[in-house]
Design goal:
The protein has about 800 residues and is α/β, with parallel strands linked by helices. It is about 60% helix and about 10% strand. The strands form 3 sheets. A 6-stranded mixed β-sheet has the order 5-6-4-3-9-10, sandwiched between helices. It has a two-stranded antiparallel sheet with strand order 1-2. α7 packs parallel to α23 and α28 runs antiparallel to α30. Potassium transporter.
Length: about 800
Amino acid sequence: MASGSGNEETNRGSMWELDRNLDQPMDEEAGKLKNMYKEKKFSAMLVTRLAFQSLGVVFGDLGTSPLYVYYNTFPRGINDPEDVIGALSLIIYSLTLIPLLKYVFIVLRANDNGQGGTFALYSLLCRHAKVNTIPNQHRTDEQLTTYSRHTFDEKSLAAKVKRWLESHPFKKNALLILVLVGTCMAIGDGILTPVISADSFWCSRFLSASGGIKVNNPKMSNDVVVLVAVAILVCLFSMQHYGTDKVGWLFAPVVLVWFLSIGVIGILNIWKFDSSVLKAFNPVYICRYFRRGKQNSWVSLGGILLSITGTEALFADLCHFPVLAVQIAFTTVVFPCLLLAYTGQAAYLVHHTDHVNDAFFRSIPDGIYWPMFIVATAAAIVASQATISATFSIIKQALALGCFPRVKIVHTSKKFLGQIYIPDINWILMILCIAVTAGFKNQSQIGNAYGTAVVIVMVVTTFLMIPIMLLVWRSHWFLVCIFTALSLLVEFPYLTAVLFKIDQGGWVPLVIAATFLVIMYVWHYGTVKRYEFEMHSKVSMAWILGLGPSLGLVRVPGIGFVYTELASGVPHIFSHFITHLPAIHSVVVFVCVKYLPVYTVPMEERFLMRRIGPKNFHMFRCVARYGYKDLHKKDDDFEKMLFDSLYLFVRLESMMEVYSDSEDYNVPAQRIENSSDLTTRENGNENTLSSIMDLSYASSSDLIQPAQSQGSSLVRSSGHASGMTSDELEFMNRCKEAGVVHILGNTIVRARRESTIIKKITVDYIYAFLRKICRENSVIFNVPHESLLNVGQIFYI
């Protein structure tokens, strides 16, 4: 008796400990779990290896800028050798202030669990303030291990900024447009980088590295140069389907050789031609440069700007490497080698002012010219690969956050989740690159276009960093002001300089960005309106309960998965379906697939399950949550994962009912977690999934907490619970054998008759066209065609 009592006390104690852990999500254990996804500890050897590999992926774009900077700075020639010193001084301090101080040591810290780019910054803001324009988030989302946010003192500056951002929809839309502008300019960068690379080889990085051939073949026509550049572009984009992992395995050695080579050549040129150029480290020569050239010197900033292009891609490509590895690579290799390269070219140009058009190749010693030409060509291809890969990542993030039409995304590596290939975007980029190359035929014009795209991305990043520093980092307002002032002090002059060159090629990225901005915003607008329609027209739970267990219809054997935008409530498509058809399946599961502003949702936390109405209704809801880095892989069996989640939910729900009637064990009906003994066995396969439960049927809009933990006493009672649920599981298995149907809504959006012309064009033509050409959800989730049923409906906005 005493022994039994002791065991009882022990069990009570263990369950109390479980309840304590469950009810305190910010306690030590939960904190450790969250930190598993935030902190990655690397050995010194591993960090060194990753720093080496980052050279090939992250720094190719920035590292090949010496090919074309001086030509774009002095397109009409050098009037005074002192101008070279002034330009070099500007390059030195631009590299120091923007890539080194701003990005490497500050902006890189604003990553979202290792993810970079404007959408990563936006996702951070969406978690710390309610600025997401699609209001489909729920309190349960905040309990994800990858979901991190801070709480604020109501009187703090951060809390005031948060309330200001949330106060009006206009501010949320303005923030979204700012993010989209930066994203679209980054895509324009991805288009222009291969072009300027291709032209450089045969005349700028491809038009620069390509120009190296013209140095030794001055009679070669521009048409031949362009044809060679186009051929390089076609080959480059044709290789993309192999993936970054296969195409880029030798990139790091190539870029390392490149950096070391330009550094050594720079030292030789300084020693051979004029070591006095080192006086450019004195910023007084910047003042003299502007005083001497006045407006011409100011306009030349558009060329100087090219020395820091690739910095924005450095942040976007961050997902491949830890911040420390990128910082080590930049400070030990990239930064010093670039300074030496630019200084060496300046030493050469001081005595050869007429060679500014091809200063890089003419400054190479004759004995190593052709080997260096080959290295330069390879390095420029690497630079192009980096921005193309970054463009794929940007499009994926935009798609996940509802800002881009659905397109096919292919995994190119089993080891690295972030390495993807988007065929449609790849060929669009190739066509645009070829069009720009053939249309300009001029390195200077392409350089002007390239600089415009880069500086706008930098300015957008600066503005996005302001709320990040206030809300996420909770920095003092004075530090935020210093960062903003120093950044804009450098970037604003560059922005004004490129505006002078809008008619000289600078309009190209603006047109490209405007086109993608229209596509993204129109798609997002349509997505928001469709969600609002679903919310306002959802069916009341009282109406469902009034129909009774049969729902007023014939319940035929089978399982119906009804896909909806809603994470709560019964969608309008369901009432539309049962109004026009006299039958419905015996088991109905409403499936909502939604994306959250997190980089990934762990598989064990992905599916949230609940029951709708009493048990004899056999109606459920499943919310499948994804982060912007998560992909629907071709080998994923989405239907099987839904069944596994459903079966496990039924088992755990029954166990919760057992304990809800027990005086000894008071397990909260919010959260439980499967153990190794709680598995679902179906056709010989064993799967364990977390589920979400709610035994309260009063409101269909109340989602419940995800299953997360379970005591040993639950495991010992699994046999009893299994007996209670066997009938329902057998019923579901019979329904599954009878047939499974996936019901997808094909909602057509139309503008009202009284709408303005702009709205009619936007909704009836642009959005309708994008819906027509985008990828279907059934294809994304690998739904068998024979199991698919589309239900059409039209609504007017």
